[in-house]
Amino acid sequence: MSRTPSPSLFAHVQSYFTEYLPRQRGASAHTIRAYRDALTLLFKFVSEQNGRGVASLQLADLDANVVTRFLDHIKAERSNSAATRNCRRAAIRGFFKHLLRNDLTHSQQYIRVLAIPAKKARQQPATYLEAEDVRLIINMPNKRTCDGWRDYTLLLFLYNGGTRVSEAAGLRWDDLQLAAPRQVRLRGKGRNYDDLGDMRSCTPRRLVCPSAMGYA
């Protein structure tokens, strides 16, 4: 009786991104993108190292040595910080844990990758702006122009709402309630929702010109 061949590398990649992360783990779109980007960089690096196309990569190509070289590469050649390197490492570890669960044949190979240590990252001291500094920044846009109103509104919204840039970038028109009581609905990390409550202090009467937002 012939043995059933083990799934290919890209069969594991597909099951990881289409089944495990979104359905079993319930990972957010942000997490899935971060993990996808890390693996894309890894596969491109391994492809260049081996002199073969990405489509020809196999599980045997992804050992601890090449993963370590990749992590050193992104720090030295791409000028990534230790913290960014550790984020890439965490994404790669997530995929190799998936491999270990589903392919015991190469378990020692995967365990050696999982044993790659993190780099110690320097903790930057917390910094902040004084209230007057914030006022100067917020009032820099020229409110006599359409673009100036847009920039002023965005800066005010980010500050008063404690809003992440990614949350502001993900806003849709139906997330804004401009009639009283003025409210904004944010989609935070992990697809969690957060209502900012009464936003009277940071929502100008005239929000922005539609043309400035690219809707006209």
UniProtKB/TrEMBL annotation:
PANTHER family: PHAGE INTEGRASE-RELATED, TYROSINE RECOMBINASE XERC. Residues 124-216 form the Tyr recombinase domain. SUPFAM superfamilies: DNA breaking-rejoining enzymes. Signal peptide: none annotated. It comes from Caballeronia udeis. PROSITE patterns: CB (PS51900), TYR_RECOMBINASE (PS51898). One of its GO terms (biological process) is DNA recombination. It comes from the Bacteria. This is Integrase domain-containing protein. Residues 7-100 form the Core-binding (CB) domain. One of its GO terms (molecular function) is DNA binding. Keywords: Chromosome partition, DNA integration, DNA recombination, DNA-binding.
